[in-house]
Structure formats: C-alpha cells, structure tokens
Amino acid sequence: MLEKIDDLLVEVQNFQSSTKDETEQFRLKFNGKKGIMNDFYDALKQIPNEQKKDFGQKINILRNAVNEKLEELKSSTESKIILEKEDLTRPGFPLELGSRHPINLVKNRIIEIFKSIGFAVADGPEIEDDWHNFTALNLPEYHPARDMQDTFFIEQNPDVLLRTHTSSVQIRYMEENEPPMRILAPGRVFRNEAVSSRSHCIFHQIEGLYIDENVSFADLKQTIQFFTTELFGKSKIRMRPSYFPFTEPSAEVDVYWGLNSETDYRITKGTGWLEIMGCGMVDPAVLKNVNIDPDKFSGYAFGMGIERIVMLLYQMSDIRMFFENDKRMLEQFKSL
Ligand code: DAH
Prior knowledge:
- By secondary structure, this protein is of the alpha+beta class.
- The chain folds into 2 domains: 2-85; 102-333, BirA Bifunctional Protein, domain 2, CATH 3.30.930.
- Helices cover 43% and strands 21% of the residues.
- It has helices at residues 2-14, 20-31, 36-46, 49-85, 102-115, 130-133, 167-176, 217-232, 262-267, 284-289, 306-314, 321-324, 327-330, and strands spanning 120-121, 127-128, 153-154, 157-162, 181-190, 202-212, 237-244, 247-256, 273-282, 298-305.
- The strands form 2 sheets. Strands 1-5-6-10-9-8-7 form a 7-stranded mixed β-sheet, sandwiched between helices.
- β3 and β4 (157-162) form a beta hairpin.
- α1 packs parallel to α4, α2 packs antiparallel against α4 and α5 crosses α11 (306-314).
- The longest helix is centred in the N-terminal third of the chain and has 37 residues, at 49-85.
- The protein is elongated, with a radius of gyration of 38 Å.
- The N and C termini lie far apart (80 Å).
- 28% of the residues are buried.
- The model has no long low-confidence stretch (mean pLDDT 92).
- Residues 165, 167, 207, 244, 247, 278-280, 301-303 line the site of 3,4-dihydroxyphenylalanine (DAH).
C-alpha cells in the first residue's frame, strides 16, 4: 500500500496537461467522489492502529501534491487562455488628457501679468466676519451701499457671512503686514442673487492692492493700462468716475474693444467700450481702520470679476456654463 502511494506521488508530480479536459480528468481521478483519495481514506479506517500513523502521513503528502498540481494547472491554463484571446500587437488604449478650467486658466494668466510687475498673491477665508467684509472697508452698519451686495449670512448670524467680494483680503493683509505692499487676491465670492445668464450666486474675483509712500492715481492708471495691453492686447482705456465706499476717488475702467465685427457691436452695445473693473485710491478711512498712517502712505485698489473676463476673451455668453462644467465645453480648453 505505501509503495503504491509513492508511485502515485511520482505520477502526480510528472503529470502535464494541455487542455482543461485533461486537467478535469486528473482532478476526478484523484479528488472525485469515487477517486483515489477517497479510497485511501476508506482504507485508513480498516488498517490496524499501529500502521495508521505512517499511512496517514503518506496520504497527506499525496493529497497536498494533488492539490498543488491542480492549482498549478489551473493558473497555467488560465494564462494560456488569456494569451490566446489577446492580440498583443494591438495598439494601446489612448489616455485622455485633462484640461484646466477656463476660470483657472485666466486667473493664472492674470496672476502672471501682475507678478511680472512685483505683485504677490494673498489669500483669505470665504467665510468672513462683518468687520473684514464690510465695516473696515468703510461700510458701517446701515450704510446704504451694503445693499449693493446681497449677502448670504450663515445661521442668521449677522457676523458670519460668505464674503461678497475679495476686498476683504485687502483688510486682512493690511492688518498683518507693513507697507510697502503689493498684492493680488484671487478667490470665490458669493451673493444672494437670482441666477441668470449674466449673473450667478457664486463667482470669482481678483482684487489688487498697492500701498506705499506717494502712490498716485497716475500709478493706478499705468498699471491697469499695462494689464489690459498684456491680457487683451488693447492699450486704449478710459476711467469713468464711480463710487465705492473703500476708495476715493473711485473709477470704473473701460477698455476700447473696437467695432470690427458684429459681435463687437453686440457686446459693446455699439459703443466699442467694455467695462472690466472697479478701482480707486484707497480711502484714508480704510487705512486708519488697519492702523496704517494715511498721512504717510497712500495706495490704490482694484477689483474685477474673472467670469466676465473669460466671457470676453472666449466669447462665451452664459455665466452658468462655468458651473455646469459640461465636458464638451471644458474640452475646448485642452490646448491652452
Ligand atoms: N469690491 C468691488 C465689488 O465687488 C470691486 C472693487 C471696486 C474692488 C473697486 C476694489 C476697488 O478694490 O477699488 O464690486
């Protein structure tokens, strides 16, 4: 009996199979219900006790060899099947390239332009308090200009709100740094407004701030002209008097877009001019609020909506597209 097991062990170890059927025959021969292994287990019950130990060990060795062989055959036939099915000369699957969101593309371009003339990037929180979003910017409680920006308050707490503009970053930066300072603050802002093709309750702004000794309105004008030339390739600008509580004097900047096409007529309403940002000289009251001496320092600030600039640059007509993120729209920015 023990010798028979040794012979079977050799048979198992030498067994080779090239088809699934042969492997199945092999499995049935040893592990099937009426297979060799079950015969041995039956025989084990009959033999005298003193031989049981040796016999049992031999059967175990055989059982392990059979199972190992079966595993080995299984994996080799599986990989054979894969090799037969796959065409290894087929070209690979192309990996799809992603693209940057147009808002980020233009934001980065604007940052690049201002970085080249010494502006650094500053950051602030989207959830603000009343002081940084309003009061320090010369918009005390009950100031009528607060109504210009419909505000989302959090849990009806008047001191916890979503910032309505990136001007709040000016205040934070001036509170923590000494002049001279020259910063750009890009970010998301929120207003409780009805969503339409022209306005959204979430959008992006870029704020600029420059504080130093003897900063003048001429510096502001030069800087903005440099910016419009770099971004749009258009250097003709005009400044219209305007009102913002945090700047005095304040202005709105128009770029001369031209009247070369039907689109130019439409988007400029036949004037050739397009409004792109608000700006002005930082109001001395604001400087006082952040402990900067207005007799020694002066400065300018400006703020623009990024969506509007993207819409002008790429002739897009609906601001909602930036938040719907249809892949067909996003994919058009792949090569930029
Ligand atoms: N914060 C203004 C707004 O959201 C934009 C703005 C205007 C920012 C003039 C400025 C500025 O820094 O000087 O409408």
